[in-house]
Specification:
The protein has a single domain (about 10-200), classed as 2-enoyl-CoA Hydratase, Chain A, domain 1. About 45% of the residues lie in helices and about 15% in strands. It has helices at about 30-45, 70-75, 85-95, 110-120, 135, 145-150, 150-160, 165-175, 185-195, 200-215, 220-230, 235-250, and strands at about 10-15, 15-20, 55-60, 65, 100-105, 105-110, 120-125, 130, 165, 180. The protein has a six-stranded mixed beta sheet with strand order 1-2-3-5-7-10, with helices on both faces. A hairpin with a 2-residue loop joins strand 1 and strand 2 (about 15-20). The protein is globular. It starts with 7 loop residues before the first strand and ends with a helix.
Length: about 250
């Protein structure tokens, strides 16, 4: 096992690389440091032709990724620090040339849900829960990408209400392709990844490229990004985010 940093642990097995988010004290919330470490790991893997499939998960049994680091983003902690754009690493993940499997092992909220949605395949543990709270916070989160997985009507319901839903619901909606007991999740992720890695690497890459071309809309992604540039920092958005930060963290 190699450890690129204490924030993202990298493990290799044959043609499979597993990246484990490792900030358990904050449920792997995407701080500037964690976003940067994940971005570096993905960039390194992207340039490594020996990698045929990637697994993304969180350490421990409570969280995949709880979203953006609200204390850092709101300025409660480390005021004045430049916060890296988590959207950049999410976009890089979605454009990886090889398949990425999200092994969702707990909380999968906000930016964490966007990470999972950007992966090619999602499997979940029985205790996994999901939430897309963008509308509550005054932002657009997942509108460009969730509909291709769950359909337009369900995506609107989940995003408009910002409600929490569990792994069984996620499976019923088509967001995840399988639900496993917590203790079996990574074993199943490795099994799937190694099966994929055993096939023709070029054929798998080209298949991913074609499916993405058929189902992803660059125009929709641009619309979401443009909307957030307009919304972020507005009086309403700042008030909503600060109120949400206080509710979630008590600070």
């Amino acid at each position: 096992m190699s450890e690129a940093s204490n924030l993202v642990i990298e493990q290799r097995r044959g043609g499979v690389a597993m990246l484990t988010l490792n900030r358990p004290e904050r449920h792997h919330a995407l701080s500037a440091s964690l976003s940067g470490a994940l971005d570096e790991a993905l960039e390194r893997i992207e340039g490594d032709e020996s990698v045929a499939c990637v697994i993304l998960t969180g350490s421990g049994e409570k969280a995949f990724c709880a979203g953006g680091d609200m204390l850092e983003m709101s300025g409660v902690e480390a005021p004045g620090r430049r916060v890296s754009n988590a959207g950049h690493v999410i976009n890089r993940l979605g454009r990886m040339p090889v398949p990425v499997i999200a092994a969702v092992n707990g909380y999968c909220y906000g930016g964490g849900a966007r990470l999972a949605i950007s992966c090619d395949i999602r499997i979940a543990s029985e205790n996994a829960t999901f939430r897309l709270p963008g509308a509550e916070y005054g932002l657009v989160v997942g509108a460009a990408t969730l509909p291709r997985l769950v359909g337009a009507a369900r995506a609107k319901e989940l995003i408009f209400t910002a409600r929490k839903f569990d792994a069984a619901e996620a499976f019923a909606y088509g967001l995840v392709s399988a639900v496993h007991p917590q203790g079996e999740l990574l074993q199943q992720a490795w099994k799937m990844a190694e099966t994929i890695a055993g096939h023709s690497p070029e054929a798998v890459r080209e298949t991913k490229r074609v499916i993405d071309a058929a189902t992803l809309s660059e125009a929709a992604e641009k619309m979401e990004n443009d909307a957030n540039r307009r919304l972020r920092g507005s009086e309403d958005q700042v008030a909503r985010f600060r109120a949400a930060t206080q509710r979630v963290t008590g600070r």
